[in-house]
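OP here, attaching both records as promised.
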Amino acid sequence: MPVITNIEDLRRIYEKRTPRMFYDYAESGSWTEQTFRENVSDFRHIRLKQRVAVDMSGRSTASQMIGQDVSMPVALAPVGLTGMQSADGEIKAARAAEAFGVPFTLSTMSICSIEDVAEHTTKPFWFQVYTLKDDDFMRRLIERARAARCSAIVVTVDLQVLGQRHKDLKNGLSAPPKLTPKSIANMMTKIPWGLEMLGTKRRFFGNIVGHAKGVTDPSSLSTWTAEAFDISLDWARIAQLKDWWGGKLIVKGIMDPEDARRAVEIGADAIIVSNHGGRQLDGAVSSIRMLPAIMDAVGDKVEVHLDSGIRSGQDVLKALALGARGTFIGRAFTYGLGAMGQAGVTKALEIIHKELDITMALCGETNVRNLGPQNLYVPKGFGDPTVLL
């Protein structure tokens, strides 16, 4: 095993170990992938202020996200098909997050079900909800999350229609993978992955198959999925989901100050500045570039988190110093999971934590809660999406 010192090391191992359709599913965006790339590259425009001769003993990255104690303000984002990156992937990722002391968010489109994850963890996790047309299914899904002791739901609001992802279409993405000459040839080069998959019964969308009306097998699932997403989603519908749930609610997919204000009006406990990792509206502004404007609009009224583009602890620090109270990683933990299973997710968290801790120290801060604009050099106009750098 090579020496692993950063998230990119995990990505390279992940690419070698995982079938191409699932690697491409994670490591791609929609259309030209401009937003996918700029989510990462825009962090580089923000520079750090070095400070010296500050007592660096007793440093702490501990914080809170929606009132929950966290070892660092980093949550595992909801990622669909996680159980196809590594057998029982959602369970592995949830267990790694629990041991590390950070939140895990289970996707509606997970392979392992809510019940599977609850059975294999000891602490509450968060559950991500897509708004679907079927009220009966939605009510039962929320009740299942409540029965599993989920402590918050994360409502994704930027997937009413699906952005076109060329690689997924060309690869024939499916769970389990369709057996074609191309997919078989590729999977034959991923023997350890295949052996792990043969050892699990979890190969379908565990929250859907057997729970949604008329969905009893993968063939019926594809028809249901094509018709299930609620294109009529509006703020009243989100407020209704909040009423059904009755607990902590996070709105994911906010990229505009006015939408942030609307989320505050319906009583969201937190919002996530996110463009779905560049997988929906290609050509949208990066999440980190939109964060300052959204902080100006609602930062004193609701907890603001940031998702999309984080690949290091320095990225985490920059988001926190711009005002975010928490951050989410999706691809970074997926790389670790595909590379080394649960140990790889732990490794990804260790890498990000170490980078955050050391960078915080070199910026002259001993507590992650004290990070702020004083730690950054931000280019003029960075927070104004009409200004091109």
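Record two, same layout:
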Amino acid sequence: MGQVYARTHLDWLESEAIYILREVAAECERPVLLFSGGKDSVVLLRLAEKAFRPAGFPFPLMHIDTGHNFDEVIEFRDRHVGKLGEKLIVRKVEDSIARGSVVLRRETDSRNAAQATTLLEAIEELGFDACIGGARRDEEKARAKERVFSFRNEFGQWDPKAQRPELWNLFNTKVHPGENMRVFPISNWTELDVWQYIAREKLDLPSIYYAHERQVLRRNGLLVPVTPITPPKGDESPETVTVRFRTVGDISCTCPVESLANSPEAIIAETSISTITERGATRMDDQTSEASMERRKKQGYF
């Protein structure tokens, strides 16, 4: 008899995600995969490779660029997409500001929530009926309410009480013109699963995910990176700390954590004993209200 290999939990999660990606390709007319350069979207691209290679992806990639991104992430985004040879569409919050559809009080205000408007404009402009993303249920309470295929109405809004049942992994993908789906192939993964998969697949990531020295400010229990967008206030004194980012987003709301972990294996060891979710530990905009994410999602946020 040939050797029998036991399937690990990562194999099962991978198979489920590949099945979901193929369902999107088979059932949706014009899907798009949202790629920011962050770790979860990097995992999605590897899963798409396994689902569709040696052919090209049956959908383009798209990034909603706030204009307040870390340079390391944007450089990685372009380099990684170039290596894959896939099409990347970039739509900018800056353009929504110029059109007047996004209005900020100050140039340095967080543009994280404003991404929703730019995303909805891109969906309407390009006619997408399904947007694939890397959100996971373990990240935050509102995201735990999501279906894998999360229905959005003609205004791009999410109603958690009006979602479709998904019994036995049967997905209802039917939408009317103007409606769309948000699809989350790694919804059932945890942060630990993601890092274990990154380690197993030897995936390249932006350097800021690993330990490095950075000037930060200690503010409201968080480490705020010192940048032109997030300068010191009042008598705050910057200090140089060895940190890494658990999640990457708009500079104005994304904070690192103190860490010496400089490899996936070291991060796995840290993550396995962490008692705080990655967003709870690192997102300033999630600190203001338990309902803030759910409110934003109802307005069209991914």
